[in-house]
Design goal:
Blueprint lengths: L2 E3 L6 E3 L9 E3 L6 E7 L2 E5 L18
Antiparallel strand pairs: 1-2, 3-4, 4-5
The chain binds zinc ion.
Length: 64
């Protein structure tokens, strides 16, 4: 897993190597809220249920 493309702006998104199915990320280009819907290959889709509180073990590698 290395990179994917934003379904909103087509921007290339470098994936965290530890990213996993269902993880939610924010596009660094357009700030779209996305979810990993497939990992081999990586596919992203818009996250419809954006609730960090339900995801207790997501990676915190992003600089907020
Ligand atoms: Zn985008």
């Amino acid at each position: 897993m290395d990179s994917a493309y934003c379904p909103d702006c087509d921007g290339k998104i470098v994936m965290n190597p530890h990213a996993r199915l269902g993880q939610k990320i924010v596009c660094p280009h357009c700030e779209a809220e996305l979810e990993i819907i497939s990992v081999e290959p990586v596919e992203l889709d818009w996250a419809y249920d954006w609730s960090w509180d339900d995801d207790e073990d997501y990676d915190e590698d992003e600089d907020w």
